[in-house]
Design a protein that fits this description.
The chain has about 400 residues and is mainly α. It has two domains: about 190 residues, no CATH class; about 160 residues, Helix Hairpins, CATH 1.10.287.950. Helix content is about 80%, strand content about 5%. It has six helices and three strands, in the order H-H-H-E-E-E-H-H-H. Helix 4 runs antiparallel to helix 5, helix 4 packs parallel to helix 6 and helix 5 runs antiparallel to helix 6. It is rod-shaped, with a radius of gyration of 56 Å. The mean pLDDT is about 75.
């Protein structure tokens, strides 16, 4: 009743589908309908939707037979505790009906003595029918006991399955915990690598700045070399002019011509040195440009590596979050498994209780059959006594008439 969201009193006299509204209700798949058609226990698994709530249930339908062995109803066994108790109440109701029937027959036997003589044969036949019904009830209870034993076996299998799930959940929780530790270690290593990449980026930027400064200084040196080359060219021209003037002066300009020749040689050497320096500077500039390009490419690679590390850290973070979520889910599964195990224990206890009630019913049915046989014998004695009472009454009537 709790699972169906109703009071026990509200459920009496109604069909199961009025409360549970399963997908198999009033269909050929209904285990209760199957058991009533075949006269044998039937089991099934489905979902119940009582009052908007959803339950996964495993239930078994056990046929309820009348005295002639015909199916007149079905007893359902659910894995939910409330349904098990409902099945027990239904079984108890059938037992109470049988006992009320017997008590009614006994009440008839204890009727007024005025009609006892006329109905004694009918009461005797009724007592025989009671004995027959009690025997049939005993047979049906034995069949119900077999079905209950099957339910007990199913509960034991379910309990073992739940224990296995709990064990596996515990092992999975350990694996998830270890994986979480590995993920966090990976995040720490990735962060350290990112810090190293940042240091490399800073060093590359510093080298790039230094190379830029060197390039600037090389450009200035190149300008100075160009100036030296111009001065050497001008000095060469001046030396050439001086040599011409010395030639014009004749012997008087001979010494000046020697000096002009030396100056020209120095100018030529200065220009050659300047050209070599210019070539070296040009090579240095080319190498400097190559270094700048290499550093730039290195910076680009470092930036891409940093971006990849950031993505890696983000991935590790998401993995860690997912692992934490899995860990919480496993914790929920473990808690649910413990609750299910407790429910199975309660259901098993209830099934054992129903089993005990069924056994008591079987013994009481046997006792009722024996009592009915004794009642038949007693009715014969009562018939004789009633005959004697009738004779006495007639005698009393006669005596009373004599006093009138």
């Amino acid at each position: 009743a709790t699972m169906a969201g109703s009071n026990p009193a509200d459920m009496v006299g109604k069909k199961c589908y009025d409360h549970f509204k399963t997908g198999e209700c009033r269909t050929p798949k209904c285990a209760s309908g199957q058991c009533m058609m075949s006269g044998r226990m039937a089991s099934s698994e489905t979902q119940a939707l009582p009052k908007g709530k959803q339950y996964d249930i495993a239930y078994s339908g056990v046929p309820i037979l009348d005295a002639n062995g015909n199916a007149i109803g079905a007893m359902e066994f659910f894995t939910d505790l409330t349904d098990i108790r409902e099945a027990a109440r239904q079984a108890q109701k059938k037992i109470d009906d049988a006992l009320r029937f017997i008590n009614g027959e006994m009440g008839k036997i204890q009727g007024g003595t005025e009609q006892a003589n006329a109905t004694v044969e009918e009461v005797s036949a009724g007592a025989g029918q009671v004995a027959k019904n009690a025997t049939a009830v005993s047979v049906n209870v034995e069949k119900s006991l077999e079905a209950v034993n099957q339910v007990q076996s199913a509960m034991e299998d379910l309990s073992r399955t739940i224990q296995d799930v709990a064990t596996r959940a515990e092992a999975t929780a350990k694996i998830v915990h270890d994986t979480s530790d590995f993920s966090r270690e990976g995040m720490d290593l990735a962060r350290k690598t990112e810090q190293g990449m940042q240091g490399i980026t800073k060093s590359s930027n510093d080298v790039n700045h230094i190379i830029g400064d060197i390039k600037g200084q090389m450009d200035k040196i190149s300008e100075i070399v160009d100036l030296i080359t111009d001065l050497a060219n001008q000095t060469n021209l001046l030396a050439l002019n001086a040599a011409i003037e010395a030639a014009r002066a004749g012997d008087a300009g001979r010494g000046f011509a020697v000096v002009a020749s030396e100056v020209k040689s120095l100018a030529v050497e200065s220009r050659a040195s300047a050209e070599r320096i210019s070539d070296m500077i040009e090579n240095l500039q080319i190498q400097t440009n190559n270094a700048v390009e290499a550093v730039t490419a290195s910076n680009t690679g470092v930036k891409e590596g940093s971006a990849a590390l950031e993505n890696t850290i983000a991935s590790f973070t998401r993995i860690a979050d997912s692992i934490d979520q899995i860990s919480r889910n496993i914790g929920d599964v473990a808690s649910a498994t413990e609750e299910q195990a407790a429910s199975v224990e309660e259901i098993t206890a209830s099934v054992n209780e129903v089993n005990g009630l069924m056994q008591n019913t079987a013994r009481e049915s046997t006792d009722a059959a024996a009592a009915s046989e004794e009642s038949s014998a007693a009715i014969e004695q009562i018939s004789k006594v009633i005959g004697n009472v009738t004779e006495v009454v007639e005698s009393v009537k006669k005596e009373i008439n004599n006093f009138k």
